[in-house]
Design brief:
about 500 residues, alpha/beta, TIM Barrel, 10 helices, binds alpha-L-arabinofuranose
Length: about 500
């Protein structure tokens, strides 16, 4: 089968905000304890942070990390996680039925974020938490000094304000599973009052209000409309969450990116409706702050343990291809999606897996994230794509899914392409005449005969990208062959 793509340099979607390459660490399972933090591990530094994990997080290229949850957030008292470690209380975490030792809190996580060269996106509890407690956390983190909470931060080792700029006002408050779940009116009012207080403490911060926790929620998209009607003036972003899993039909699973795009477009439309209603000049942007493949049907309970092995999905090559499709869709919508977080980072539905007292490996999904973060820079282009289609449960689905980016600073132009056909390769002609004389400088591909292959501690390189000989142009047109079920990164330069 054939496909054709034409790129016009000035035909652009928008700037890619680096915050689209965020991730997420929740106090859940082994994400924190025996994930990023394991005192006594041979690779742990003096603060208990595992250096092998630090190196992998740096390699992954994560731009910011949302913390501390997640469902955990809605029962969390941030004050439990500050001060001398020996006097911190062990608590029941009702969200995940675990025991929380509180050995890591905001001070430690802030230090870890510096170690990995990224920044914290903080979150305030809108379940059991009050607007007052949220504002106190803001004062603790961001107020310079001379008040009770800011002076306590200084006493706890952080003389300078943390300067955390992005804050989530709760987590998935539309979900019946959430601790102290609220309906849209109650959340909208609480979020508005909390947001006012947060911005009074520090008017330089940006706030994300809770949108629908999935497009399958019965309250979607009515929830989003109501919440925005309360919070439009104080909010900077509305959140979207979405996870996909293979329910038995590979074509449907591979088409997940189509559903993600519909979700983004629907929420954008809801935002624009409220913008019109409010006669506002502000356009609400989106924070897709939880996305991934997640086999939710396979969860095993481990009740009332400390750092239990919860939702440690093992990702196959097929999962990585679906994941790549989702990441590309975020880039194709970068005019509205300014923030995104791969959920999560270590052990819990994560690109990085660790063993307690042992090693750390890259899962298959590590690679698409790494290459998108590393190379999708500058602006996203809007190519003209002529591709064959298949029918999936999401309707007409292109076999060739593609995104392209151009970074004027280094003159680099990158094409990311996914062939979701399970049976046929695609011969694709890439027409780059509008770029003048360019050559392909690198071609990386993720593919394999066995799409069920997974990386394990015994075989950590079962799924790894390979390098292909770059194609040579003929009159500004490159012809490339994309094998069935393969993902590609093609870099072009002068
Ligand atoms: O990422 C795992 C969980 O998924 C989070 O705690 C929650 O926000 C979502 O339902």
């Amino acid at each position: 089968m054939n496909a054709k793509v034409t790129f016009i340099k000035n035909f652009q979607i928008g700037d890619i905000d680096r915050r689209i390459f965020g991730s997420f660490v929740e106090h859940l399972g082994r994400a924190v304890y025996t994930g990023i933090y394991e005192p006594g591990h041979p690779q742990a530094d003096d603060n208990g942070f595992r250096q092998d994990v630090v190196e992998l997080v740096k390699e992954l290229g994560v731009s910011h990390v949302r913390y501390p949850g997640g469902n955990f957030l809605s029962g969390y008292d941030w004050k439990d996680g500050i001060g001398p470690k020996e006097s911190r209380m062990r608590r029941l975490d009702l969200a995940w039925k675990s025991i929380e030792s509180n050995q890591v809190g905001i001070d430690e996580f802030y230090d870890w974020s510096k170690l990995v060269g990224t920044f914290v996106t903080a979150a305030v509890n809108m379940g059991t938490g009050t607007p007052k407690e949220a504002a106190e956390l803001m004062e603790y983190c961001n107020y310079p000094g001379g008040t009770y909470w800011s002076d306590l931060r200084i006493k706890n080792g952080h003389h300078d304000p943390m300067g955390i700029k992005l804050w989530c006002v709760g987590n998935e408050m539309d979900g019946a599973w959430q601790i102290c779940h609220l309906d849209a009116d109650d959340y909208g009012k609480k979020a508005l009052e909390t947001a006012k207080m947060l911005k009074w403490v520090d008017d330089s911060v940006e706030l994300v209000v809770c949108g629908s926790s999935s497009s399958w929620q019965p309250t979607f998209p009515e929830w989003d409309r109501k919440v925005l009607e309360y919070t439009y003036d104080v909010a900077d972003y509305i959140s979207l969450h979405r996870y996909y899993e293979n329910e038995g039909n590979d074509d449907d699973f591979l088409a997940s990116f189509v559903d993600m795009e519909h979700f983004i477009h629907t929420i954008s439309a809801v935002c624009d409706y409220v913008k019109a209603l409010k006669r506002s000049t502000k356009t609400m942007m989106l924070s897709f702050d939880e996305w991934n493949v997640w086999y939710q049907q396979h969860q095993a309970p481990h009740d009332w343990m400390e750092a239990p092995p919860l939702i440690e999905d093992r990702y196959s090559l097929l999962d990585a291809l679906v994941f790549a499709g989702l990441g590309m869709t975020l880039i194709n919508n970068c005019d509205r999606v300014k923030i995104a977080c791969l959920a999560q980072l270590v052990n819990v539905i994560a690109p990085i897996l660790t063993e307690k007292d042992g090693g750390a490996i890259r899962q298959s999904i590590f690679y698409p994230f790494k290459y998108l973060s590393q190379y999708a820079k500058g602006v996203a282009l809007k190519p003209v794509i002529d591709t064959p289609f298949i029918e999936t449960k999401y309707g007409k689905t292109p076999l060739l899914h593609l995104c392209a980016t151009y970074n004027e600073a280094d003159g680099e132009f990158v094409v990311f392409a996914l062939n979701i056909s399970r049976v046929e390769s695609l011969t694709v002609s890439l027409d780059m005449q509008s770029f003048g004389a360019v050559k392909m400088i690198e071609h990386i591909s993720l593919r394999g005969a066995d799409t069920s292959a997974v990386n394990t501690f015994a075989r950590p390189d079962a799924v790894v990208p390979i390098r292909i000989t770059p194609a040579v142009a003929s009159a500004g047109v490159f012809e490339v062959r994309l094998e069935q079920l393969s993902w590609h990164v093609m870099r072009f330069g002068r």
